[in-house]
Please model this.
Amino acid sequence: MINKIKYTIIILLALASFTACQNDDTTVANVDAMVAEPGDLLNQAFPLNKVRVEGEGLMGLKKITLDNKIDISFNPNYNSDKAFIFTIPFDEKLGSRFGVQPITFITGTGSVTKNIEILQPVPAVIKTIPAVATPGFPLEIQGTWFYNVSSITLGGKSLSYSVNSSSSIIIGLPADAVSGSELVITTPGGTAKKTIDFATIILVSDFDGKGTRTEWNAYGDIDSFNTNTTGGPTGNYATLTWTGSTANGYNGSSAGGGAGFLSTSNNDATKTFIDIDVSGNVAGAQFAIQLNTIDGKDYGYNFKITDVNWTTKTISIADFKDNYGFGSNSAATLDPSKINEIKVGIAQGDTPNPSVIKFDNIKIRYQ
Model:
């Protein structure tokens, strides 16, 4: 009986010793390095980089947590005792950020936490809205990685700006901006650069002595016409009054023809616009804008004002039509470089009596 007890004790001691040896052979999870791919960044990575983790005891990967709050998905098929691979996420809604932060790996043999630095990528400009900018107007810049913007310059001069999101910035363009200037957006990740092309803007008349046409005259069934009315949006403006006469059946005002306003390269009607500040004595007063060309073509565009306060009306050349604006043929195929005269009047057939139209700052714009 005593011998049986001895043998039992010996067997238990042997099992305990064997188990202890097995526990000594178990490798505790350990991370030696985190290497970003492509490239060879060590313990650093850009968002969306693949990262190869190297170490020991990495088999049975269960969970990866970045910055103590973001769970990272991974493919368990790419997991061995020596390495595994995952992709760095970046999601503002989850609280992603740049800089040094902890990352924790839980494997089948334990947990290990290391520090990894998430680097800010270089920003990039994808496009502008509109594609062709206008000096003095806002411009939206769309792109990527617009985080922590420190400055925006155009032609070396600082601009005012508002960051809508990491992919959208609104900038204020100065009125004297020069086409072909370089826009530079600076962030901790680097700089994004883009050459900004501006619209060609020709001032036809501002009724203050500036523009390509300064001597205006009226014709037809008008009651009065004054090109020096004071108190407009930028100074003097023109006032044309119609009080019901139909002797001629038409009326208008013009500063005459001459050379075309635009260069021969500005030949797409869909990219050409008339900008004009308008007002009137009563809502419903109907403007009649007419374009004449150096080869004798004419198109019209008619519209009623809905507000007696000053507003800027923008009209696409492609929206003008023949027969003084009442025809069925549009000016979409018109060569705008041949436009050399702009007339402004009142469409007598459907307007209040009397109608007083006010207009200022007539421009033709190509973008």
Remarks:
- The radius of gyration is 37 Å.
- The longest strand covers residues 355-366.
- The mean pLDDT is 92.
